Amino acid sequence: MAKGIGGMGNLVKQAQKMQSKIMKMQEELGERTVEATSGGGMVSVVANGRQEIVSIRIEKEVVDPDDVEMLQDLILAAINEALKSSQEMVSAEMQKVTGGMNIPGLF
User: Fold this and answer.
1) Which of 43, 107, 106, 105 lies closest to 80, judged by CA?
2) How far is Cα 64 from Cα 74, in angstroms, rounded to an integer?
3) Is residue 33 a contact partner of residue 48, using CB atoms and an 8 Å limit?
4) Which end of the chain is more exposed for a tag (fewer CB within 10 A), N or C?
5) For residue 39, what pLDDT is reported?
6) Cα 93–chain centre separation
7) What is the DSSP string of the chain?
8) Was domain 2-98 assigned CATH 2.115.10.20?
9) Where exactly are the structural domains of the chain?
10) What is the dihedral sign for C-alpha 58, 64, 70, 73?
11) Measured between alpha carbons, how far is 77 from 40 in angstroms, rounded to an integer?
12) How far is Cα 33 from Cα 51, in angstroms, rounded to an integer?
């Protein structure tokens, strides 16, 4: 019976080690960024690994007061792509840390 308890202690240590790696990775991902563009580069959005938008750049040539809807669509497209890329970056890094284990609630 004692062997089973020792095995459980080892499992807890491994879980704590993985949790520590995940926390460190999340910190690092907060500093990493991805960029997405739309409209042939007329709108550019940068997001970090926390799925936060950190910058938006809009070329003045795409700003048309008579077609605000087009600009709104370009901004939304770039934001959605940046967030998707950010999520993919986080997922790929999480796979490295967890060894491909699917742990509900991690991301």
Assistant:
1) 43
2) 12
3) yes
4) N
5) 96
6) 9
7) -HHHHHHHHHHHHHHHHHHHHHHHHHHHHHH-EEEEEETTTTEEEEEETTS-EEEEEE-GGG--TT-HHHHHHHHHHHHHHHHHHHHHHHHHHHHHHHTT---TT--
8) no
9) 2-98
10) positive
11) 12
12) 9
Local mean pLDDT, 10-residue blocks, the chain (107 residues): 64 81 84 96 96 96 96 98 95 80 56
What pLDDT shows up at residue 11? 79
* Cα 84-87-92 angle, rounded to 5 deg: 125
- Closest by CA position to 90, among listed 47, 50, 37, 31: 50
* CA neighbor of 35 nearest in space, from 44, 25, 26, 24: 44
* Residues 35, 95: Cα–Cα separation, whole Å: 22
How close are the terminal C-alpha atoms of the chain, in Å?
Answer: 36
